[in-house]
Amino acid sequence: MNELTAFVERRWGSWGIFILGLWAVVLALVALARLVLLSAVVGSSNQNVSQGQIWVVFILNMLLALAFAACAYGLWTRRHWSRLLFMGCIAVWAVFYMVALFTSTTPLADKDFTPGSLAFNLVPYLGGVIVSIWYLNLDHIKTLFDKNEAADQ
Fold first, then answer.
1. What is the mean pLDDT of residues 95-114?
2. Residue 146: domain span
3. Kind and range of the H or E element at 84?
């Protein structure tokens, strides 16, 4: 186990950076999966959805997928821009999720706004935003990214 930890620290700087990079990959894949879901909605000829809404959702999911993929690359290579991009992307992702939770007509958004339901739906996203922003702003983590930027110049 010590060899694995040493390898992770040499390559990525810490387990947290490695895990956030994996999370960015998962979120990129989720954004792409939403595109597949979007194509199924369009294929079912839903009369309640306008073409403008479909294009907005398509473009936002493509941008988020590309941004999260870039975040994963940047986090794993310890680029300073990726730390900032990841914090921004994860905040945008959470905002869009909350808007969809309150406005969506999908079966997953059952309009149950009881405190327990809201906590169950919001805590994972808001917790993810808070934990990732807190972690990426720790002094020793910022130093890892800044040290790598200084070495590149």
1. 67
2. 2-152
3. helix 80-103
